[in-house]
Amino acid sequence: MNSCEVTLFEEEFRGLPLGVASVHPRTAEGEYHVVDRHIGRWTEATIHFSWNERGSGNWKVLEEGGRRVMTHAMVAPIGPPMLISGDPFWGDYAFQAQIRPLSFQGACGLIVRYQNCRCYDAVRITRGQIALLHCYHAAQSLLASRGFVFDVDRYYTLRVECVGPRITVSVDGEKLLEGEEWEYLRGKVGFWSQVPARFADPRVTTSRQAAEEGEARAASWGGEERALRDRLPKPVLWKRIPTAGFGTDRNLRFGDLNGDSRLEIVVSQRVDMASDDYPTISCLTAIDLEGQVLWQLGEPSPRFRPATSDNCFQVHDLDGDG
Asked: Which residues pair with 225 in a beta bridge?
């Protein structure tokens, strides 16, 4: 395969502002839903609240030597943190980027054939070794490894070429690793790091044939997806219930409060005490499905902050009368 015929992706980070690139809002939405984690054309595939302590963020865009680089700025043993880009339908390709590890308290490297944040192939850099790994959930298989002394004072050009099940890894033009892996034969690319490290000039290239095959797979998938959507019923908005002044986030409960065989709603508000892990409920409001307030305990407040833990209240028939 001539892996340099077509450029699928390249990045100079010029479209991103300098400074903090990642923000992890500690909200109910962020905890319970898939929310936007995009940094330009990249996606934060993994997040953890500790990576945003003091609001500093763990991914940053910096200027260095006349170019912009993506920097991972902290030691993060949980995870690992990773940025992902590309197309899930890419098959055979070569992924090249420059990496400068700034610490060896953990590891950093590149990701290829990314399926999800727990299933991918990865190149791992430590102080004295480079390794090729197959990651399947909590299990890691070592495909190949070799002693190689890295230091913090320079960038290394890593190139990972994927052709069918064969994966080869080169550093500064020298082929160091070769392995075979049959489970993931296509997928996205990315960076990962448990330590401070810098990444620059990522580029994905492939052959003209492989590019056309990837486009065909994407088109086929898109057509099948549209056909499935067309056969499914469309959601319809039933009603809106205003909760002005006493609204909540995810902290609401449903139950028949008045014996009319219909559900009513109890919503709660809270005040965080020592931290957001130790709240006290400040107001409970019961409403019916028409939005009529049935009763209210406590004083509602419009100064409401989304909760990051559960409020302790439930709906239950205490005296068993239905």
From this structure: none
State how far the Cα of 314 lies from the Cα of 206, in Å rounded to an integer: 57
| Spatial CA neighbour of 123 closest among 91, 168, 77, 62 | 168
Distances (CA, A) of 246 to 28, 85, 127, 251, 283: 17, 41, 55, 12, 8
Tokens in use for 296? 């209210």
139: left (phi over 0), alpha (psi -120 to 50) or beta: beta
Cα–Cα distance, 193 to 101 (Å, whole number) = 9
**Phi and psi torsions of 23, nearest 5°:** -135, 130
pLDDT at 201: 98
Helical spans, DSSP H, in the chain: 28-32, 208-231
Which tokens in the block code for residue 73? 């700025």
Q: Centre a 10 Å sphere on the Cβ of residue 185 and count the other Cβ atoms it contains.
A: 13
For residue 244, give the nearest of 293, 279, 289, 280 by alpha carbon.
Answer: 293
> What is the percentage of the chain residues whose pLDDT exceeds 90?
75
**DSSP H helical ranges for 10-145:** 28-32
User: pTM for this one?
Assistant: 0.83
Q: Which domains does the chain have, with CATH numbers?
A: 6-209 (2.60.120.560), 242-322 (no CATH)
What average pLDDT does range 285-293 have in this prediction?
95
Cα-based distances in Å from 206 to 43, 76, 138, 179: 22, 33, 30, 19
What's the gap between Cα 173 and its chain centre? 31
Compute CA distances 297 → 4, 11, 225, 278, 308, whole Å: 68, 55, 48, 20, 22
Q: How many CA atoms lie within 13 A of 202 on its CB side?
A: 25
